[in-house]
Design brief:
CATH architecture of the largest domain in chain A: 3-Layer(aba) Sandwich
Oligomer: heterodimer
Radius of gyration of chain B: 22 Å
CATH class of the largest domain in chain B: Alpha Beta
CATH topology of the largest domain in chain B: Rossmann fold
Number of strands of chain A: 35
Number of strands of chain B: 9
Strand order of the largest sheet of chain B: 6-5-9-7-8
Helix content of chain B: 40-55%
CATH topology of the largest domain in chain A: Rossmann fold
Shape of chain B: globular
Number of helices of chain B: 19
Strand content of chain B: 5-15%
Structural class of chain B: alpha/beta
Largest sheet of chain A: 7 strands, mixed
Largest sheet of chain B: 5 strands, mixed
Distance between the termini of chain B: 39 Å
Radius of gyration of chain A: 28 Å
Number of domains of chain B: 3
């Protein structure tokens, strides 16, 4: 519909807000309460403009202005908040008149009377919406002669978020965010009138998505506690990149200063994470600045690891490799290596002539199904079945599932980007919970939002999917009592779920690691996907699981896989993998002729290595990852000071030189030449939002599978937003999530004499795990859960419960 | 009747609310011992209107009757009640709610209180009629928290009505089912704003909601909802009983029927008086209330949020209806007239009023939270304590005009209206105070007592 903003004529879609009309026209009005992807509420009253529209006569014709011969414009008597005003045919918006300027200036003045104006010591200074808007729309003077409101300056809302209540301008973004985006209503206004402040009923912010409020706060009230007072905004190097924390590929900005990562903020990727990331992604970076990072290569001389140069280290490796047959060498990289690193690993394997090449962790089943849904498919689905704990495993997907529950399709981008005020969104929107079913062996957070939940016995994924498959094949089929028990649902429940999925036009089944790590359950799941005509979204264990499988960083034979090479290879090159945490594996590693470890810390395995090469952390690499929907996303290196550490392409270059070869993948650029041939994508020009190639441009998939998880066990290894392998070095995150939690049913806690908060050590599989006991009825009797490690993927495992060592007993504060 | 108003130039004083000159309908049994019981109400013709509506009229006929009566919302805004009722979408089998707004918190307003205390069944009946007309499935009665007696009387009346089959399933043998829950507010003026009231009822923070969607489209829990004032609903009882024509025969062109006017301040007989729409202020103040007991200088025409008028004949002889007051820059509001004595410093009086609004601002939008909630009361405090300077009056005016019309809901304008009116009529008192550091008229304890 035709709208005129000042002197600019626009043709806009019905339902557009007036503020978006102003911005689409290249104009500007200030705003504090509106926020992309959230409901407009018209609270800050900054975006006032003079708005008028023509009127129609009763016969449908326009009321004409006799002087101009045009439809007469009837101005609204009051200035309108443009964020909550919908455009109408013929609407005229004036943002430049004296009246509008006076009002905007007045609002700036009101907003500032209780704002402390402590910009010189405020972390938001230089990147503050209030600061910018006050300069642009205020007149620089205050006529307010009285005391400002005084309030708490350092209120810890949680271990991750500190609130300065004086700086708060009550825009309600954070309060609305919690209700609208993750659906965790943990924050609200308290008190009223000028005493209004935000706060919680109980201490803490129990949500996995709290950090986003620091991004959207228009002032310096809500601050990332881990980066408070660490630097000024203009001192940071901002690196727009892709998170390598989980398989979703969320867009982030890494802010580094003097060679350290100080904070991570969410960036916009409308097709992936919108502007939201989970706390694991945001706060899980502190390990990268840990003082015990490896910065130089180490070589074992006379039984001791000693610092060396890269030349010495690679010469040492080349020398030792000469004595070995190429196929005796195993190369394994972690699944969050970039595609470029994958190319380097493949080139190295080819050069050595070994088929013992793998990426780990790698699920039992392929991640590249026939009907892969996009994240947008998930956000617009009309029936969703989630198996696993999506909130912990892929936080972005959790939020996008909640988008689907609102039934509002993602907004169309406008010339200025995401609409500032999407009038389809409301506070406290009714959610279509009935479209969502969540199944897991224990209580997962997403179950609170689901219309139906299924708790099947641990390890029962295959039985669960088979039961559904049986009803998909024959709606009148009956499940036997044993089948019902194994699937955790009655025939009626299963039938209703199958009917909903089958009837849905845009059904999506999300398979977590629990479903993918056993071949039989993955097969049963895919049979169901096919039977009900849904799409699937398989959540790979790490950031580039999909990409490395697609690229083919895979063994030439099943027995040459990661598990096999730990056993069979005489020499090993391991990148970011720490198999020696398992005592038995460590014994076997001691017998290797050559063990090269490329990692960022002195891991258990590094301690056994002949050569240790310092690696670049995920924040220090240039490259490409492919997220779980098959989207190619750029990864860019932040300027972090980590000595001579390098990623695997650097290893390929140095090692190649030592061997007298110029390996493909010896640099990111060289690897990209290979990738371009393979995928026909110019990886150097990959857009920020990534590229989702059409299915036919995907290369042939060499699917290889081995059983990853055991079918039985007494401990369920579960996904965790906070990565267990780095949690001890992620101080703030560890405090917020309460450490690596061993979740125990109250009855089991009594049985095993465990108290909540106790720090314990237990042997899970062959690995000693440190954990903090958390007693909860969220896990069933006879089952404990513990966060996964790259070397200990999700699924059942056998733990020695009789041998749990209680190291320290602590009182757990009830949450 | 309106003729009578026009011709009664010097009427004899009315000494009692049972004066036969005007017929009393809604307040007939207020103040009568035992009138709050079902027995009393039924023996005085109670629930006959509900019976008539439910057994002999279709819901559409009830709405048409109310529309034809010309009844306008008695909560203050004056939106035609029948039109509002007709906004409801046809029933779809899912819940739809009637909410009675009994959060009577406007200073100067106290008409609903006595209905709930002394004649609660009249309101129950009004809610049944309204609910039947719009085919509501459930009703909520949101009572101001301070109205303890009113709450208990309403609860008792609803229990009595339920026991007698007047609420619950198949009321009066019809196939219409309806029940009412009483909810006591927690003492926030903003809850009188209908969308904030709905938030409060839902257990949320009482902030006004964005409109649209209007409550008739998506109100309580996202379902169609209509919110009516107590006396809008009780008026409908008499409209159904006696017909729209009877109701429409009273009042002026744009304001029909009778209304409960309240009067407070220094007058001989403060209280609630039921008069036809269009009666004059003079009639209310002199004839009913017995005239001022102190020399007056101004009066607030319709509850504290309506801009005041100086004590001049042209205003005193104004008919109390929606149109005339709007034309003269004020509002009929709830019809709560407050008389302001001459010897009361107007700045001090406004300080009292501004503090009320500062205390009651919900904190949602910037101009109200910071301007009404923080800045204005401090400016008044400065003036009243004698620390003002001449330029402060202009500053006050400027701040007030920055707030006016720019806030999210009418609460801020409800504060600014009286402020601006006081500046318009009594600017000299402001200037005197700012220049001399003391009021032209002594600050009067009586006002604050």
């Amino acid at each position: 519909m035709k709208v005129r903003v000042n002197d600019v004529e626009l043709d806009l879609a019905p339902g557009t807000s007036a503020i978006d009309a102003v911005f689409a026209a290249g104009g500007d009005v200030p705003y504090f309460c509106s926020q992309e992807y959230m409901s407009p509420i018209g609270a800050c009253r900054m975006c006032l403009a003079q708005v008028g529209a023509p009127r129609k006569e009763r016969d449908g014709s326009w009321v004409m202005d006799e002087a101009t011969g045009q439809p007469k414009i009837f101005w609204f008597p009051n200035l309108m908040a443009t964020c909550t005003t919908q455009v109408m045919e013929g609407m005229v918006i004036d943002t430049l008149s004296e009246r509008v300027k006076t009002a905007q200036n007045g609002m700036v003045e009101f907003t500032l009377i209780n704002h402390p104006l402590d910009c010189p010591v405020c972390d938001k200074g230089g990147a503050c919406e209030l600061q910018d808007r006050s300069y642009e729309f205020g007149d620089g003077l205050s006529r307010f002669q009285f005391d400002k409101r005084h309030n708490e300056k350092h209120h810890p809302l949680s271990d991750l978020i500190t609130l300065d209540r004086e700086r708060c301008i009550q825009c309600k973004r954070c309060v609305r965010y919690f209700e609208e985006v993750p659906g965790d209503e943990v924050l609200d206004f308290i008190e009223r009138t000028a005493h209004t402040y935000i706060g919680t009923a109980d201490p803490g912010l129990p949500s996995n998505f709290t950090g986003n409020i620091a991004d959207i706060c228009p002032v310096g009230a809500l601050l990332d506690a881990s980066s408070r007072f660490r630097g000024r905004n203009w001192e940071y190097d901002h690196t727009r990149t892709t998170s390598m924390d989980d398989a979703t590929g969320a867009a982030i900005i890494v802010d580094a200063r003097t060679g350290r990562i100080e904070r991570i903020k969410a960036a916009l990727n409308p097709d992936v994470n919108k502007t939201w990331i989970d706390d694991g992604t945001r706060f899980g970076h502190e390990y990268a600045d840990s003082p015990d990072r490896l910065t130089t290569p180490l070589i074992r001389r006379q039984g001791k690891l000693e610092p060396a140069t890269w030349d010495e280290a690679t010469a040492f490796i080349a020398e030792r490799l000469k004595g070995l047959s190429g196929k005796d060498v195993g190369i394994a990289i972690r699944s969050d290596s970039t595609l470029e690193e994958g190319v380097a690993a493949m080139a190295l394997a080819e050069e050595l002539g070994t088929g013992q090449l793998d990426h780990a962790p790698r699920p039992a089943a392929t991640l590249i199904g026939n009907q892969v849904a996009t994240i947008t498919d998930l956000a617009t689905a009309d029936a969703i079945l989630v198996v696993g704990d999506l909130t912990e495993e892929a936080g972005v997907l959790d939020l996008r599932v909640k988008d689907a529950l609102k039934g509002v399709t993602p907004p169309t981008l406008m010339p200025h980007g995401v609409p500032i005020a999407d009038l389809r969104l409301k506070e406290h929107m009714p959610r279509q919970r009935e479209i969502l079913t969540v199944a897991a062996p224990y209580r997962v957070d997403l179950m609170r939002h689901a219309g139906a939940t299924v708790r099947y016995p641990a390890g029962g994924e295959a039985a669960f999917f088979r039961a559904l498959g049986k009803l998909a094949a024959d709606a009148n089929a009956l499940l036997g009592e044993a089948d019902e028990a194994a699937a955790g649902m009655s025939t009626g429940q299963a039938r209703a779920l199958v009917a909903r999925l089958a009837a849905a036009k845009r059904g999506v089944i999300v398979l977590g690691g629990l479903a993918l790590n056993r071949r039989e359950s993955a097969e049963a799941a895919r049979a169901l996907v096919k039977a009900v005509g849904a799409k699937e979204l398989a959540v790979g264990p790490m950031a580039n699981s999909y990409g490395l499988e697609l690229l083919g960083v895979l063994p030439s034979h099943e027995r040459y896989g990661y598990a096999g090479m730990l056993d069979g290879a005489k020499a090993l090159v391991l990148s970011h993998l720490d198999p020696a945490q398992d005592g038995e594996v460590a014994e076997r590693l001691r017998g290797k002729d050559l063990l090269v470890v490329h990692d960022i810390f002195m891991t258990e395995t590094a301690h056994l290595a002949d050569v240790v090469l310092p690696a670049a952390s995920v924040y220090e690499r240039d490259g490409t990852v492919v997220n779980l929907e098959g989207r190619f996303l750029p990864v860019r290196a932040a300027p972090v000071d980590a000595g001579s550490s390098t990623d695997l392409t650097g290893v390929a270059r140095a090692l190649g030189e030592a061997m007298g070869k110029r390996l493909e993948g010896r640099s990111v650029r060289s690897a990209r030449r290979v990738l371009k041939k393979r995928f026909d994508i110019d990886f150097a020009e990959l857009p920020d939002h990534g590229l989702l190639p059409r299915a036919k441009s995907r290369g042939p998939v060499k699917a290889l599978a081995g059983e990853v998880a055991a079918g039985t066990g007494n401990v369920l290894v579960v996904p965790s937003m906070a990565r267990a392998e780095y949690l001890s070095r992620n101080r703030h995150l560890a405090a917020a999530v309460g450490g690596n939690r061993l979740r125990v049913n109250p009855e089991d806690a009594v049985k095993h004499n465990l108290t909540g908060g106790a720090e314990v050590r237990l042997k899970v599989g062959g690995t000693w795990r440190q954990a903090v006991v958390h007693v909860t009825d969220g896990v069933p009797r006879g089952l404990m859960t513990i966060p996964s490690l790259p070397e200990q993927p999700v699924g059942l495992a056998q733990a020695d419960l009789a041998g749990i060592v209680v190291e320290q007993v602590r009182l757990e504060v009830a949450s | 009747m309106s003729d009578q108003v026009a011709t009664a130039a010097k009427p004899a004083p009315i000494l009692s609310r049972h004066d036969p000159r005007y017929e009393v309908t809604m307040y007939r049994y207020v103040g009568v011992e035992g009138a709050h019981t079902l027995d009393f109400y039924r023996s005085h013709g109670g629930y006959e209107a509900a019976r008539k509506a439910l057994t002999s009229m279709t819901p559409a006929q009830v709405i048409d009757e109310v529309k034809a009566s010309g009844l306008r919302g008695r909560g203050g805004a004056g939106f035609p009640t029948g039109v509002k009722w007709s906004f409801m979408a046809p029933p779809d089998g899912k819940p739809r709610y009637l909410v009675c707004n009994a959060d009577e918190s406007e200073p100067g307003s106290f008409k609903d209180r006595y209905i709930m205390e002394d004649d609660p069944h009249q309101l129950v009946e009004g809610m049944i009629i309204g609910a039947y007309a719009m085919q509501m499935t459930f009703g909520f009665l949101y009572v101001r928290g301070e109205y303890y007696l009113g709450t208990t009387r309403m609860e008792a009346a609803i229990a009595e009505a339920r026991a007698a089959g007047l609420l619950g399933k198949n009321i009066l043998g019809s196939d219409f089912s309806f029940d009412i829950t009483v909810h006591r507010g927690a003492g926030a003026y903003i809850c009188g704003e209908e969308t904030a009231l709905m938030n409060s009822l839902e257990g949320l923070r009482a902030n006004p909601r964005l409109k649209p969607p209007f409550p008739a489209a998506a109100g309580m829990y996202g379902r169609p909802t209509t919110i009516n004032n107590v006396t809008s609903l009780t008026s409908s009882v008499h409209i159904i009983n006696r017909g729209a024509a009877w109701f429409a025969s009273m009042g002026t062109d744009d304001s029909k029927g009778t209304k409960l006017y309240q009067i407070s301040g220094p007058v001989a007989r403060t209280g609630v008086y039921e008069m036809p729409m269009g009666a004059t202020f003079r009639e209310l103040i002199y004839d009913f209330a017995g005239g001022p007991t102190m020399e007056p200088k101004a009066f607030i025409p319709g509850g504290s949020s309506t801009p005041m008028f100086p004590w001049e004949d042209r205003f005193l002889d104004m008919p109390m209806d929606y149109g005339t007051l709007a034309k003269n820059g004020s509002m009929l509001g709830t019809g709560g007239v407050i008389v302001i004595p001459r010897d009361k410093c107007i700045v001090d009086a406004l300080y009292n009023l501004v503090r009320f609004y500062a205390h009651e601002s919900c904190g949602k939008c910037t101009p109200c939270r910071e301007g009404v909630g923080h800045w204005l009361p401090r400016m008044y405090q400065k003036l009243v304590s004698g620390l003002g300077r001449p330029e402060d009056v202009a500053l006050l005016e400027s701040v007030a005009s920055n707030i006016k019309g720019n806030a999210f809901c009418p609460l801020a304008d409800a504060c600014i209206g009286p402020v601006q009116a006081s500046l318009k009529w009594f600017r000299d008192e402001y200037e005197y105070l700012a220049a001399n550091g003391k009021s032209k008229y002594a600050k009067n304890d009586w006002w604050q007592a």
